Amino acid sequence: MNTTKATIGLLSAAIMFFSCKKDNPSTPETPTPVTPSASKKVYVVNEGNFNSSNASISLYDPATGNITEDYYKTQNGSGVGDVAQSMNYINSKFYIVVNNSSKVVVCDNQLKKTAEISGLTSPRYILKINDEKAYISDMYSNAISVINLSDNTKTSDIALGSSSETMVLANNKVFVTTYNYPSTKYAYVIDAASNTKADSIDVGLNATNIVIDKNNKIWVLGNKLSRINPETNAVEASWEVSNTNFSYKLCLNKTKDTLYFLNDNIYRMSISDNALPTSTFIEKGSKSFYGMGVNPNDYTIYATDALDYTQKANVYIFNSNGTELKNFKAGVVANGFYFE
Predict the structure, then answer these.
(1) Distance between CA atoms of 42 and 21, rounded to whole angstroms?
(2) Less Cβ crowding at N or C end of the chain, within 10 Å?
(3) pLDDT digits (tens, 9 = 90+) for 23-33
(4) Residue 197's domain spans which residues?
(5) 175 and 192 share a domain?
(6) Do residues 201 and 168 touch, judged by C-beta distance below 8 A?
């Protein structure tokens, strides 16, 4: 979450609240639960405005084109909380990480809440380690939380000495990115068996995104794009990324042989390339891309435009050639996706 943008969104939301408040508010409507079709869905994670508790999860059905803008609320009768950061599916359950509410909401397959993980500071992402254990990264606690998946409780911390962001698991090691500008330029390595920090890797500043390709190589994006060998923890290749903002949102396609990264525009790069792309893949034009995801089922690329960070965001869908296919409205500050 961008703090400056969140502050702007908060001020705007406050102005809208006081200007639109009614003397005699009506009784809230009871939402009607939704029963989606059997086709694979796309869940849009909408941050909402900082301190406004208007985060939401939108549900998009690629087969029908139907969109439910606040699917979580239709299923539960109330909102998910303050700043939805990410979402994952572990052991037949959805886990929604709600950053400013300091919690992770656990849901069934219909996105109906069944449990909640507490004891967190500012959670960001959740990663399954095995059927019994998961890790949760955190913006402010300088530690990774260890979670017992059988009862969804926090059992311990793994000290990092820094914030933590996205994570991947390879060779029984967890590779963790961090955003702690300007002092930290490392990705950390955790021994998943002992729950201890084992190593650190210099990958440059602002390295908050990480993925694993089809060759089991790890890619990290910040002000550099780096490829890491998970067996040796060595950086095999690294390229400086030229940008006006810091680079963010690194994704792989269905076959995990092509990288997509968002750096104002959208860029595409083969994992076998020896240089960064020299031209953009998808020009933003009048859009302002904020979030991105690549559907592992059909190669389509999804990108969000948060607009003014107070109104419903736009979501754009592009085919594998970069041609726009359609767009739809999601929630406020749509930042990412979970693809079934």
Answers:
(1) 34
(2) C
(3) 333 333 444 55
(4) 160-281
(5) yes
(6) no
